Amino acid sequence: MTIPSLALASTSPRRREILARLGLPFEAVAPLFEEVAVDGRSARDEAMRFAEAKARSLSDRFPRHIIIGGDTLIDCEGEKIGKPRDADDARRILRRLSGRTHTVWTAVAIVDTTGPTTATVTAEGAQVTMKPVGDIEIARYVATGEPLDKAGAYAIQGGAASWIEKCEGDMLAVIGLLLAPITAYLETRGRLRGTVSSSGECSGQRPHLDAVPNIDVCGQVVVPRFTASAVWRSEEVLGEYLRDYFCNQIRSHG
Asked: What is the pLDDT of the chain when averaged over all its residues?
């Protein structure tokens, strides 16, 4: 069986980093698609439409590839929220999320062009509760520039970490790229293999996490699905999270 090549329809540093942890070569390319929201469409459905359109936009350029597209949108009490238009909009969004629970919807589309083009699209939501945040704190954060390219105008693994009171669901849905559907599909196409020994140690193709220290978050081990009140630290926690995520994927798929 010919093993297909892999492409990521995104230039997001975080999505590139998450996918790179699988240890597979891939090419990251900006999708040829402009996001235009449709009134009345839910955040979940919109994210799925955007993710698929991003992946399909590269199908002609990447024949005989598996192309991955992703998109993240937020639902806050019925308001659909994407990336801020500018700094003023970022401040508005953060004031809207402050002190409330919102749902982060991330969709991943897998477009396979190795034969007749097929598409598989999945979405998952996570509930995030943000502590009340004052205008001065919001202004300082927006001034760093980090919120300007993030759905919801914040990074849970970045400068807004201390604002998060609770996260229920898959942390990767909040960060922006779901691994479960990707690893499951790549296994079927011969791109991903791994085993777990009787002692529980993972082997085979797995994330490159050799330099990542062990992390305990507020007395809890970070696992693929969790409810936690925590302060996350970007590289350390993401790395440990992905280590546990990958090993649990291998265990669950045998």
From this structure: 79
CB-based contact 40:59 (threshold 8 Å): no
Neighbours of 59 (CB within 10 A): 17
Pairing of strands 27-28, 5-8: parallel
Segments making up each domain of the chain, as ranges: 5-253
CA distances from 158 to 14, 30, 165 (A): 11, 23, 14
**Alpha-carbon distance 15 to 71, whole Å?**
10
State both tokens at 126.
């996570």
Could you give the 3-state DSSP secondary structure of residue 97?
A: helix
224 within 8 A of 247, measured Cβ to Cβ? no
Residues tagged active-site: 71
110: nearest Cα among 14, 193, 19, 186: 186
**CA distance linking residue 115 with residue 156, whole number of Å:** 38
Give the number of residues written for the chain.
Answer: 254
d(CA 22, CA 245): 11
Question: Which of 175, 43, 153 shows the shortest CA–CA distance to 98?
Answer: 153
CATH topology of domain 5-253: Maf protein (3.90.950)
Helix (H) or strand (E) holding 225: strand 225-228
CA atoms of 204 and 171, how far apart (whole Å) = 24
pLDDT digits (tens, 9 = 90+) for 53-98: 999 999 999 999 999 999 999 999 999 999 999 999 999 999 999 9
